Amino acid sequence: MIAKIGKGENMIGAISYNQLKVIEGNGQVLFSNKLPEKQDGNYTTHYIYRYFEPYLLVNNKTEKPVRHISLNPDPIDKVSDEQFRNMAQQYMQEMGYGNQPFVVFKHTDIERTHIHIVTTCVELNGKKIPDSYDHTRSMEICRKLEQQYNLKPATEKSQLQNDSIFKPVDYTKGDIKSQIASVIRHLPKYYQYQGLGSYNALLSLFNITSFEVKDELNGQPRHGLTYFALNKSREKASNPFKASLFGKEAGLIQLQKYFKQSKVKMKYSPARAVLKNTIESAMYTASNEKGFKKQLLEQGINTLVRRNKEGRIYGITFIDHESRTVWNGSQISKNLSANVFNDRWNAQKVDRQNILHDKNPFAKTPPVNHDQHKEEETQIHEFFDFLDERQPNLENYDYGIIETIAGLLPETHAQDYEELAFAHKMKKKKKRKKKQ
Q1: In the prediction, which pLDDT does 420 show?
Q2: Where are the domains of the chain?
Q3: What is the pTM of this model?
């Protein structure tokens, strides 16, 4: 079972999202805690919100008082309503929300029947319920529930990331070719992506990009890839490197084969449904683009948005580090296409401007700064703990333990580390010559 914990500021949005499922016939209220039960079972957004409102009013310091949690058993698990109720009650109790008001919704809009729980982290005395290490605690509770209810265990693929040694390219440290090689040669072992756009979205987290090249040599057409290092402004910061320098797996032909394989695997991936629900939930509980990205980042999902010169969104990509899959929004759902987000976030901007104008009719509307999104988009989720700045850089690395490190990476190619070791030896020789 997979649990996702959304932290937002929009309680009405969280309730409305679930109520919409109920209205469409794809959901129902299973039970509520500290809310009077309605005999007719007709729970409205207003009715539910009024019992959360006192908790929200006593604390205006907590930036994200809303908790929107989903518990997602495997599609093969057959869970009864009574079991869902008991699981939700136990989960909330062990997470520290047992005395809080919360509502449990059952969703049946996809093959994976699951539940959503809406609550608040603010107590009636105004204190915030501690949420440090809630992801770790949540996973531990899920493992316990899997055993209790004989559910299929979820595979925490993100833990494999701890064994990896590649990290973002730093073009200022030199030896860019080796830095790029340590990333691109191993990404296919960890992630699945269906096209060059998704591939570049993932590469951008490591300060790398690839470009498709079409030209001729001696009258013969050539079609391939070149790779560049990026700086903090997401601009090319190195000379081009031909894909052939990194082995055939980095080349266009092999990548296109991998794209096809990934497309088949991802089509039937259970992660797609969980990701869809998580993104849709964040759309309702976040009041702007920045909040949306931050909420997803907390749940192990990077969001990369592509805009044209006029600022219009023409592409949006989601990198789910838990399932290690990369998706364009439209691949997940038509409701998550670039146009949908463009219209939604523009409307939210207009709403905020109207509110500010009502408060101060003489205030000038600040110009839109399209560059403000660049830094946000390149944040890396904590699941990338192998990208720790405290790790030794390649120049000072202990090459005497190359074999040990290579053993940590399943199916890696020792050639990378041989190249690094050779470069290191050459640097030592140069230093000796200079001393002499």
Answers
A1: 45
A2: 2-154, 160-267+392-435
A3: 0.71
